[in-house]
Structure formats: C-alpha cells, structure tokens
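S1.2 Input.
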Amino acid sequence: MRVKGAINLPFTDFTAQTLAQRIPSSQTRVLIYCNNNFLDSPRAFATKAPAASLNLSTFTALRSYGYRNVYELGELISVHETQLELVGTDHR
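S1.3 Output.
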C-alpha cells in the first residue's frame, strides 16, 4: 500500500544525483512515510516508536540536500480513516 503518486526512494539510495533525478526541484513538497505508519493495513507491519523510525533520518538527509518543503505523514494513520488516497491494495 502506498499514497497515490508516491515514489519509492530507499534511504540507502540517497545521493545528490539520485535525488535530483527523482525530485528535481528542491521546492517540491515531500511527504515521507514508511509502511509502518499505517494502522489497519491488510498487510501488517510492526509499528515503531517515532524516534526509532527511518523518517527522522530521511527528514534530516533531505534537509541536508537542500529540500525544505519536507513533511512527515504522522505517527500512525488508519487506512480506514485517512483522507489520503491510498493505492496498491483493497483497504476500504
């Protein structure tokens, strides 16, 4: 399951070149999240404490590459109650 329009860019692939190819403008609004941000997902993922998630490292890395319009999805989002359009599985 993913947010519609999302691109997958693993943290291990963060380089100046890769980021410039996938997110050409540093002004692009970037929403970071992991599969373990979703509650009630048909495919269960273990939830993590916010400080233990990769989102903090991802946020810091994006900022260091000049991206300033970066947001985190949130700690835990119910797939049944979110207003985000999710794709990839029947979740509603």
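S1.4 Remarks. Strands lie at 2-3, 30-32, 38-39, 70-72, 77-78, 86-87.
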